[in-house]
UniProtKB/TrEMBL annotation, chains A, B:
UniProt-annotated stretches for the region Disordered: 151-172
CDD domains in alphabetical order: HTH_LacI
Keywords tagged on the record: DNA-binding, Repressor, Transcription, Transcription regulation
GO molecular function, one term: DNA-binding transcription factor activity
Organism of derivation: Nonomuraea montanisoli
Organism placement in taxonomy: Bacteria, Bacillati, Actinomycetota, Actinomycetes, Streptosporangiales
Protein name: LacI family DNA-binding transcriptional regulator
InterPro entries on file: HTH_LacI, LacI/GalR-like_sensor, Lambda_DNA-bd_dom_sf, Peripla_BP_I
PROSITE patterns: HTH_LACI_1, HTH_LACI_2
SMART domains found in the cross-reference section: HTH_LACI
Biased composition (Low complexity): 156-172
Domain spans labelled HTH lacI-type: 6-59
Length: 367, 367
DNA sequence: CGCCTCCATGGAAACGATTCCATCATGGTT
DNA sequence: AACCATGATGGAATCGTTTCCATGGAGGCG
């Protein structure tokens, strides 16, 4: 019953040829039309499928590409994953998935697992810093980052300050400074990005700037930022957009969990009842903000205006529908996959995809 | 620079022992304490990692487990995937992911890909029917279904009737009948489920029944069901709960896409303005229902009551917050993974996980 | 007519691991 | 003192594929 799979040897035997010939026929090598046809027929009849194991072992090449995301429950990463999957499918490459939970340790462990599987092309939304990704690259992995860049300093989790704590170093991390290209009042978009680091990112800077300007235009002055893990670049952009006089109490961080996000949002609203607008750095944060506001009887947008980074299907369902900074999650994944696949040539450049402010109903004029 | 990975041979050489000894030490075989220590030291120093390729080839065993879901953008499948990932990680097994888009053809293709990768344990939310999964099983795959069962009849997509069309055969599909165990007015929960089919399912029947009773209790009589691909069991449960006099026009199907869901919902509201309650078979359908209702100026719950199958984080964000039938997506994934991992012994039984009606604000009394 | 080239073809090595089996040393028993 | 059981150890086969290389035949050209 359990018919074990036919091997190339079986095919060769049945077709009366050598295994080498079968291999050549199947991988497009030269062969006489007669044998080619015969081999093909036999292979089809035996339902022969070459084993990726054998092939990969021989070629010392990997099967598949790895995909590491913080949390598939977050719609954005789901979109990103769908993009990667779509591209990988069209290339016929399997995708090995890992969820890091925004934990550098788990991430490192998963990288090890991929290494063991001989998966040497990886698309990652990084949680850890150089001490994870340095070794990975050194082990010969082709890594493309998506949505974020890893923290610069070894051992530095990119989320910066811990949950509930208010703000961090006054001028952003090393990575952020580098991102901003060292020009304090930099020219308008497109932003200058670190070269040599293959990555696909959304144009956070432009998105955030647009949102801040929009809020400013509505009269808001006390604008808060609600950040999560991996939002360093967004925070930096926020600081840049706000200008020199950033009210540090209005920059708050949460970890990846929904509870933490809610706590951060609620804490922010309670400690600073004078704020008039909030910019949430991701959809989980946005959700938390809506929830916290409702819990505290703050009406949106009457009492507080809200902009969420990330467009998700339910943003339209909220009442009022949420004004968002949309980023093309699916495209980010797709492009990252393209990059990692054709990384054979010279190293791929970083790609920046545009964001878009979608104005719905969660922002109103200052009153 | 590109230090290629150390092989077992390198370790053996460096430790001055044979490869067999290294293998034994590393996989817990017998060895003298002295050599064991030496080998371990050398292995650590060389940062040796056994190649899964070599191992799997030799053992003719698969690396990893496959996971096939319709769409990672759907939060529910994201939760399910997280569950699988959690369990797989703790077992040290890599997960190969595929997204089927609810398309039997893509699904079959992905199964082929997994076969090629020698991945012979699969967790699937099936889209195709027996003509996909029969061959898969025959090829020696251990398959555990999650959330759904495949259609019984070959070539029969489990979604039954096509989008927009109204209802199907008057008494559910063969699969559903089998599910109901052939007893037309069956005893209350727990439902009798098909044995021998390894699967992890939510107790749709109880969930739907509870929801229908709840709506009935509020006075609703014209209750509609909005179904999507793979919702056969839910439809069947709905029919059963409603009783013999099912208004077939109130049972509507959409395909997996959000557009289709919206179209179905909108069409339903417009063609049957007399309905007073809607039961959405999944979160995408629920989202569509909310959107369509708003578009048509139907207020929830004043004009129409709404229950959504699936609890998702944003259900609470809606206003009013959505009353839902919660199913443990993460647990379903986790259990399915457990099942597929310890499938070595006798065949695993089907597992049914409880659902829960979470009453929030989207249902009101008939007026 | 002979030689050289070219192409189709098959044998065999290699990839990196596990595992069977033979070998050898050791220590205990008769 | 001879023998046997036990345990550590290394060699070699094996898994399924690709690929190098040798072989042999056919055909073209000098």
């Amino acid at each position: 019953m359990e018919a074990k799979r036919a091997t190339i040897k079986d095919v060769a035997e049945a077709a009366g040829v050598g295994v080498a010939t079968v291999s050549r026929v199947l991988s497009g090598g030269s062969a006489s039309p007669a044998t080619r046809e015969r081999v093909l027929a036999v292979a089809a009849q035996l339902d022969y499928r070459p084993s990726a194991l054998g092939r990969n072992l021989r070629q010392r090449r990997t099967g598949g590409i790895g995909l590491l995301v913080p949390d598939l429950t977050d719609t954005f990463f789901g979109q990103l994953a769908e993009g990667v999957l779509a591209c990988a499918r069209s290339a016929g490459e399997p995708v090995v998935l890992g969820s890091t939970g925004d934990d550098p340790e788990q991430e490192a462990e998963l990288v090890g697992m991929l290494l063991e599987q001989s998966v040497d092309r990886v698309i990652a939304v990084p949680s850890g810093g150089a001490d994870t990704w340095g070794p990975a690259a050194r082990a010969g992995m082709t890594v493309v980052f998506a949505d974020r860049l890893p923290a610069e300093r070894p051992g530095d989790a990119p989320s910066g300050p811990m949950p509930g704590s208010m703000s961090g170093s006054a001028s952003g991390s090393t990575a952020d400074l580098m991102l901003l290209d060292g020009v304090p009042p930099p020219p308008p978009s497109p932003p200058v990005l670190p070269t040599g680091v293959p990555a696909v990112l959304a144009d956070d800077r432009a998105g955030i700037r647009t949102a801040v300007r929009y809020l400013r235009g509505l009269g808001h002055r006390r604008i808060a930022f609600l950040g999560g893990p991996g939002h360093d670049r967004r925070v930096a952009a926020f600081r840049e957009a706000i200008g020199p006089a950033v009210d540090e109490d209005l920059v708050v961080f949460a970890t990846g969990s929904r509870d933490s996000a809610y706590a951060a949002a609620s804490g922010l609203f309670q400690s600073r009842p004078d704020l008039t607008a909030v910019l949430a750095g991701g959809n989980v944060l946005g959700e938390a903000a809506v929830l916290a506001a409702r819990e505290l009887d703050l009406r949106v947008p009457r009492d507080v205006s809200l902009v969420m980074y990330d467009d998700v299907p339910w943003a339209e369902l909220c009442s009022p529908p949420l004004t968002v900074i949309a980023q093309p999650g699916r495209d980010i994944g797709y492009r990252a996959c393209e990059l990692v696949l054709r990384a054979s040539g010279r190293r791929p450049r970083t790609v920046v995809l545009p964001t878009e402010l979608i104005v719905r109903g969660s922002c109103g004029p200052l009153r």
